[in-house]
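During the no-cost extension, the postdoctoral fellow (Dr. R.K.) reprocessed legacy sequence entries with the updated structure-token encoder. One reprocessed record is reproduced below for audit purposes.
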Amino acid sequence: MLMVHVMTNNNNNKRVLAASCVIIATAFAVAVVANYMIGAWAFVPLAIVYWASIFIVVKPSKKKLISIFTAPTENYKYALIAFVPALFCIISFVWGTQYIRGVVLIALWILFAVFNSVAEELFWRGYLFDNLSWKPLYKILISTALFILSHLSWGVFSITIRHPLMIVPLLIMSITWGYVYHKTNSLKWPVVAHFFVNILTLTVWVFLNIYVPPLG
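Re-encoded structure tokens follow.
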């Protein structure tokens, strides 16, 4: 029975990792093709395909989506921990406020922040952590590695995201939110914190290279 259980876990791990790789590869392919055709506006079809592929794999129920924002957390200190990555984005936001203009861009900015925070946390934290049979530390490390790789597609057209130093904030975000999810078993704070990071980093203007933060 133990051997069967181990084999089942191994097969499930392989299935989950394969799904992760397919999502990353698909997103990258879409980014390359779309960038060739429409330049930096490639972020629109990329976002649609990326989120759709995540929802197809995760298949979240209405109850699951609602629980993201209603599930209790055992200790509010984890909410504070989840927001640590957002603190590092404040300076970048202040520098970039001069670029916040255009009704269409502002609408896309807000929509992106909402959908991306839910989709990415559902997959890179929730789905991976719930379906991998490894120890929590290994789950955090593998989800972080895959989370960073998934952002290579955005770097196809964004000068900022393809900068080598971007690995640092992505590393901090993924480890922090993975830890919070592990401790609370709730995606509420990772999703909310992720939303604020997407807002503070002025994603749409960064995608379009209208705003390129000083990264050194």
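The chain has one domain: 2-207. The mean pLDDT is 93. The remaining legacy entries will be reprocessed before the final report is submitted.
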